[in-house]
Hints:
Shape: elongated
Oligomer: single chain
Helix content: 40-55%
CATH topology of the largest domain: Rossmann fold
Radius of gyration: 22 Å
Strand order of the largest sheet: 3-2-1-4-5-6-7
Amino acid sequence: MGLKVVLTGGGTGGHIYPAVAVGRRLLEVAPGAKIYYVGTSRGLEKELVPKEGWPFYTVAAAGLARRISPATVKALLTTGKGYLQARGLLQRLKPDLVLGTGGYVCGPVVLAGAHLGIPTMIHEQNAYPGLTNRWLARVAGRVCITFPQSAQYFPAGSRIVETGLPIRRQILETTREEGLRGLGLKEGFRVLVVGGSQGAKSINLAMLDVYDRLKERRDIHWLHITGQAGYEGYLQELAARGIDLTHFGNITIMPYVYQMEQALSVADLVIGRAGASFLAEVTAKGLPGILIPYPFASENHQEYNAKAVVESGGAILVKEKDLSGPVLAEHIIALADHPERLARMARGARALGKPDAVDRIIEQVFALTGKTRRI
């Protein structure tokens, strides 16, 4: 009988995409495998997962606060309800393994699996683990981590394996030539500036000053993804500063890039936030970075992520409170004018990257279930 796996993770794409990557790869390497997905009725997973053609189920879930309050009591009741729903569902599905990739929904589902004697795994994307995963590590058969720095925050005795974070194949397979052609760009040293799908206002504002200061450096090419919001106003602000993009052909400003693999393929240096998925792609490509962690991320996890890349030698960290055009311009010039330093940072980033992360996770799936594999 083929391998049966329940995947669970929800709320944001950062929790869902790793699970989807594992599911897709399992179907490739395990003939006859069946994938089931458990999420919530209100998370992004309800839109993304059905497109994969996998059976999709929902259970109740809520985030737990550390302090006792009426909201905490309500969340406990919701989680208890979700646990009973998950337990009943798992008894019907009889999976060989339950894998949780983060989000509130993992709590009741992975716990129910462990209590039923089903092998369980969790995957932690960030350098500082979320509360749910720190709690589930006590019962999980494997704790797969992205950053080695996260191991210290799990309970003693946790069965930790450093796997990395799965990324799309296109990220690794797209060549620089393909990226240049797809984006209509010329060859040259290029800085990729990314603020996330919604943009990052503080990064965009700082970059206005950078362009003003470095507009005579025609040897530096720029690909700046501003985000959809405020894109037209950004072009107007550049024009007001005397930066006409028809004249400055080395500056390319775009509201959004659907093929992020193309943008990464043409970059020599990246400037952006420190979300786990973005960093997994950047380090797998071996790209040096100037990282500005989003200061309001839960439990400040982006700063922990950025520090992990800095420790590997692959990035420079600039905190939001220190962010300015002069600070960014100074770092950029120092790297652009010293290729040997840029090369050392590239090696540091590549040393942290795990391009084979999905197969590392699959290996743990087979190790826990004892099923055959074809990797």
